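[audit] Reproducing an earlier prediction to check determinism. Same input, same settings, fresh worker. If the C-alpha cells differ from the archived copy the diff job will pick it up downstream; this log only records the rerun itself.
[audit] input (394 residues):
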Amino acid sequence: MRTEEYPLVSVLIPTYNRAIYLDECLYSLAVQDYPNYEVLIRDNDSTDDTAAVVKKNEPQFAHIVEFRYKKNETNVGFRDNFIHGVAECKGKYTIILMDDDFLCSPTAISSFAKALEATAKTSLVVAPTEHYRQGRMDLSPKQIVDGGSRRTSCSQFSTISGEEYFLNSWTKYGPLCFSSSMFNTQLALQSPWATWTRKASLDINLYHAISLNQNVAIIKEPLAFYRVHGAQDFHTAPLEDKLDGHTRIDLWYAFAKQHAHSSRLSLFVWLLKTLMLREEGVIRDLADRDPWFLEQFLRWLKGYDYLHYLVLRYLSPQMRKYDYREAARTKRGLSRARCEMSIWLRRRIASLVLYLDRAMHDSQASSLDNSCSHTQDRNAGQLALPSQEGSSGR
C-alpha cells in the first residue's frame, strides 16, 4: 500500500492528568490500518504519569509517519491547548481524539479519510458515538478494539450540505464529540473557530465554523467510544463555563444569518429548537450538583436574553422533568393539578416547535410525510442521538 496515495491525517490528543485512560486511547490508535498518519500528544503540563504512559506506548507507533509528544511548560488552558495543537498538525485532515476516549474500529481513520476524499468541498465527516460507562461495561476498551466487529466500509456514508447539517443539528444530527469526527485542517485554521472559542463548545464551534458553504459526510456506524466517568471536565467545570457555552448559540445564529441561504423564519425556528435542546446536559448536571447552581444559571440567562430564558425555562424537556419532579415532592391537590396542566401545555408548545423544525429542515421526513409512509424507518441514514453529556466540553 503506497502512502503517497493517501492524504496525511493528524491525530491530535490534548491531554491533562489522564494517564489512567491514555494507555487505552493510544492502543486504539496504534492498531489503525490507515497507512499515512501522525500522532501529536499535547500535554498541558500534567502532574501525573502521562509522560511515562506515552514513553511506554511509543514503540507501538514505529510504523506511522511521526509520533510527537509535547509538554507545555505551564498549563495554557483547555482552549489554547486545543487551538495551538491544531495549528501544529501537519496533516491535510485532523482528528481530535480526547484523552479518555478511544476509537472502536481499526478502520476508523480509513473510514473518515475515505468519506472526506469522496466528494469535493467536504470539510467535515462525523459519525455516531457510543458511550463507554466506566466501571459498568463487560468488555475493556482493548477487548472492544481487538474484537474488530466494526469495520466500516467506505460505502457506509452519505454526503449532505453544510446548511442541512446546521439546520438539523441537535435533532437529526448530533450532538457529537471530537473523537467521532475528522475535519479539513486548513479550513479549520482559516475559519473563525479560534476567535469564537473561549472555554466551552469547542466541538460545536468548529463544526459550524467550517461546515456552512461546504459539505459534511455522515458515517452511519459508530467509530468512537465516549468514556463517561465522574472526573470529566463537563461535571467539574465552574458555573461561568456553563454560561459561556450558552452565549455560543447567538454567535452561531448570527453566523448562519450571514452565510446560510435559509429564510429568517427558518433560522428563527432553528434558534428556538436549539434553545430548547442545547442545554439539556447543563440543566441535568447543575440540578444534580445543587439546585442553587441551576437557579443561578437561570437568573443569569434571564438577564442575558429574556427570549432565551423563556424558551429554556419553560420548553426544555429537562426543565419540564425537573419541574414535574419538584411538584410531585412539594405540591398536593389543586396546586399540583395546575402544575401538571402547565407542564402538559409546555410540552405541546415544544412539540409544535419541533414539528415546525422538522417540516422546514428535514427533507427526508417531509417526503415521507407527503407519501403517508408513516411505517417506514425514518432513522435510516441518520445519526443516532447520543446523550447531551457527549458534547461541548469535557
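[audit] rerun output stored. Observation attached for the diff report: The first helix runs from residue 19 to 30.
[audit] end
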